[in-house]
């Protein structure tokens, strides 16, 4: 192995950060193309169905992650990608009706951005308890 120890850990962190940034950029590009006001925080939406090209309605599913939660994913109710385990299935249910639904993380320090995104959609599903 050419890279080991702390160097491997740092290289992995840099690569993971770059990969996440690329995924976020592509997600925002797709969402912008169907009329969502971007950018906003989301995270990997593994299993989310493709959006219709011309959705009748655009919705967001709002989530909150507890900072520094011991689970490492934002709460005991979250799956490995940091979303509630029912969030993607709920969003997919909306998509199957010919509408668009994406997951948005509510971050208190970024309330103004969240409010702009929320005002620009047709509906909000809140998954915060």
Question: What would you note in describing this structure?
Answer:
- With 129 residues, this protein is α/β, with parallel strands linked by helices.
- It has helices at residues 5-33, 87-95, 111-119, and strands spanning 58-63, 100-105, 123-126.
- Helix 2 links the parallel strand 1 (58-63) and strand 2 (100-105).
- The longest helix has 29 residues, at 5-33.
- The protein is globular, with a radius of gyration of 16 Å.
SSE order in H/E notation? HEHEHE
Secondary-structure-derived class: alpha/beta
Broad shape? globular
Reported for the largest beta sheet, the result is: 3 strands, parallel
Stretches with pLDDT under 50, minimum 5 residues? none
* Rounded radius of gyration (Å): 16 Å
Topology at a glance:
Elements: H1 5-33, E1 58-63, H2 87-95, E2 100-105, H3 111-119, E3 123-126
Parallel strand pairs: 1-2, 1-3
Quick gist of this model?
The protein is α/β, with parallel strands linked by helices and 129 residues long.
Features:
alpha/beta; 36% helix; 129 residues; 3-stranded parallel sheet; 3 helices; single chain
